[in-house]
Design goal:
16% strand, 26 helices, 5-stranded parallel β-sheet, 7-stranded mixed β-sheet, 23 strands, alpha/beta, elongated
Length: 676
């Protein structure tokens, strides 16, 4: 690999020279179908799991035919076939994924463990603390393995921590730990095999600190000038390969001739595999394929729509899978996705046959989540206070009694670790819903969301089947840390889907759709709508397609394109200004956007007002306005305008909050458009 680096055939390399015994020994001690979360110095995990060398060479050369399709370098890739989870550069998030995998094993009562690597530097990250704490609190069979090589890039351990040994941290989390010689492969194998048995038997986590040293730089470009020469001399005598050869020779298992034969055999294999890797074809980027691989296409719902309504409606036709109906009559799926705007008797009869009831926004959410728990036995709910207490807003009240503590899980205040655990559950085929108490708190799990969940499928075709519920928005006088509507942070991140319903029926149908979707979905729910908005909601289990807007009303004067609380502001304003013909479009989904519906609304009016509660600068309104200007310019009769909240944090005082809100400026923008 060092030769290939010098030849310019790979762009970056993290050498594990001096640390080989840890990666190889750990992989040997584990079962082949147990997940390992390695880092960038753990080549031995990949080779011990028998990943073909030519494919590894192709991976590091950026070949699109292998694990990450040329999208990731170094060790930032994984393989479900080999039960290796690809790392991200932030290092710490790997640990929480191991928690989620171990939770999956525990829920299935399988005699398995997961294993996650950390460097000595990584133990200073918050993710290390969170992952160990969650594993201890939940009694998870996971091994946390620290490779203590003395340096985090150039920072020595004397500047990294003050405890005598990193294994001492185990006591603080109530778990067992051991410190071992990481350069003796037999010690590593024997210790980890015993630790694995302990984790399975006791159903508890374990911390292992392996003392070692890296003989190269953090990565090859960084060099080793900061390391005293005497350290290299001392650790050269402890080289794991050299010492193992000497040991095998001493006990007459090997001799110099046998060692030379082994080395030559290995060289032949490597040369042959490299030759095979070098026969690859030239890369031809395919934009459509790149875009198509951002999301997983599977929607693993067992029954994502209401498929049958076995009733005779008005004596005119029997609807069974929507196959027998008059021309142009609405289908059951149409009605689920878009409740009727008119009072057509035939449509209303069909809705009655389907079965609807009046629910508040919050109750519709609860029903959608409840029915999803019934539908998906592999769905796990996680969040602070969601079990006995029922959640901060009582949406999960009663769930614990119905579905049990294994599926309805209170969490420590460890948002990053819980989102990482959700991803780990996904590796083992589970679905999960993580409830943020407030959307504001997603910041402490931001890295896991935007760098791990969102990029997972694009990087190595691994789905991240996670929904994060985000109670958001103002209007309740809760101040800057409990009132933000921060959807714009996530709309910018390819790989996420961002949903923001405004009505009870959408709240239920889109939540079910989000849970059915095998991609990560950020699901916003406006707190001020929880108990203030009611509406007719189908009693059945149904889904509304993500990525489709809802036409609230059709008009000819002004289009108001909005979502969330903005929909109700627009409806209220239109009701008080009947002389203006408003075309109101509820986006419902912000990523991906329904551009067809946006264009159709622009075409009907020629004048567009984008309305949202989020602050003006960087809000979703700017993106939609830019798209309209680029694609619908000939349809416009006036500049696209944005009505948004102030570019300040949202204040606590109710009068200040009203002044902050976009709603108070809606009239002025409407008048500007009318007069243009």
């Amino acid at each position: 690999m060092l030769v290939l680096l010098r030849q310019g055939k790979i762009s970056k390399w993290f050498s594990g020279i001096g640390q080989e015994a840890i990666a190889v020994g750990a992989a040997i001690a584990m079962q082949e179908d147990e997940w390992i979360m390695p880092l960038h110095r753990n080549l031995g995990v990949f080779t011990t799991r028998n990943m073909p060398l030519h494919k590894l060479f192709m991976q590091w050369q950026g070949n699109p035919e292998v694990y990450s399709k040329g999208r990731e370098r170094s060790f930032h890739f994984g393989s479900a076939e080999h039960h290796i989870c690809g790392m991200i550069s932030h290092l710490g998030p790997q640990l929480a994924i191991a928690d989620g995998v171990a939770l999956a094993y525990k829920l299935r009562k399988e005699k398995k463990v997961s294993l996650a690597f950390s460097g000595d530097g990584g133990t200073s990250e918050g993710d290390f603390h969170e992952a160990l704490n969650v594993a201890a609190v939940w009694d998870l069979p996971v091994i946390f393995l620290i490779e203590n090589n003395g340096y985090a890039l150039s920072t020595p351990i004397s500047e990294q921590y003050r405890c005598e040994s990193l294994v001492d941290k185990a006591k603080g989390y109530g778990m067992a730990g051991v410190k071992i010689d990481g350069n003796n492969i037999l010690t590593v194998i024997d210790t980890l095999a015993g630790v694995r048995e302990y984790c399975i038997r006791e159903q508890k986590p374990f911390l292992v600190e392996c003392m070692t040293f890296r003989m190269r730089g953090h990565e090859e470009a960084s060099g080793t000038k900061y390391v005293p020469k005497e350290l290299f001399d001392a650790w050269a005598e402890k080289d794991p390969i050299k010492n193992y050869e000497e040991y095998l020779t001493k006990i007459n298992v090997l001799n110099e001739v046998a060692i030379e034969i082994i080395r030559n055999d290995i060289k032949l294999v490597i040369d042959k595999e490299l030759e095979l890797a070098n026969k690859t074809t030239t890369i031809h980027p395919d934009t459509e394929k790149e875009l198509g691989d951002v999301y997983a296409t599977e929607v693993n719902s067992q029954s994502s729509m209401v498929n049958e309504v076995k009733s005779t409606v008005s004596g005119q036709w029997s609807v069974v899978n929507d196959t027998e109906r008059p021309p142009n009559a609405p289908t059951t799926n149409d009605l689920m996705a878009n409740p009727p705007l008119t009072n057509d008797p035939m449509t209303n009869d069909l809705m009655t046959a389907i079965g609807r009831k009046d629910l508040r926004y919050i109750d519709a959410l609860k029903e959608g989540l409840w029915q999803s728990m019934q539908q998906h036995s592999n769905l796990i709910l996680m969040g602070q206070d969601i079990a006995e207490y029922g959640g901060a807003f009582k949406i999960t009240e009663g769930f614990l009694e119905q579905f049990g503590k294994e599926r309805v899980r209170n969490t420590p205040l460890c948002e990053s670790a819980i989102i990482g655990s959700a991803l780990g559950l996904s590796l083992e085929g589970f679905k999960s819903m993580v409830e943020m108490q407030f959307a504001d708190f997603a910041t402490v799990g931001f890295n896991q969301i935007v760098n791990n969940l969102a990029k997972m499928h694009y990087r190595w075709a691994q789905q991240a089947d996670v929904v994060i519920r985000m109670p958001a928005g103002g209007g309740v006088g809760a101040g800057p840390f409990h009132s933000q509507t921060n959807e714009a942070w996530f709309v910018h991140t390819p790989g996420l889907k961002v949903v923001y319903p405004s009505t009870p029926d959408d709240a239920k149908g889109l939540l079910i759709a989000a849970i059915n979707d095998s991609n990560p979905v950020i699901y916003f729910e406006h707190k001020a709508l929880y108990r203030s908005i009611s509406g007719q909601v189908p009693e059945a289990y149904y889904a509304i397609e993500i990525g489709k807007a809802r036409q609230v009303s059709e008009g000819t004067d002004i289009s108001i394109i909005t979502y969330g609380a903005g929909v109700h502001w627009a409806i209220e304003y239109a009701a008080h200004h009947e002389g203006i013909s408003f075309d109101i479009l509820d986006l419902r989904t912000l990523l991906p956007l329904d551009y067809d519906a946006i264009k159709a609304s622009v075409a009907r009016t020629g004048k567009v007002l984008l309305l949202h509660e989020d602050s003006l600068t960087g809000g979703i309104g700017g993106e939609v306005a830019a798209w309209i200007g680029e694609h619908c310019f000939r349809l416009l009769d006036a500049p696209v305008m944005r009505c948004a909240s102030l570019d300040t944090p949202i204040p606590f005082n109710m009068e200040l909050e009203k002044n902050y809100m976009a709603k108070g400026r809606l009239h002025g923008y409407v008048q500007k458009l009318l007069q243009y």
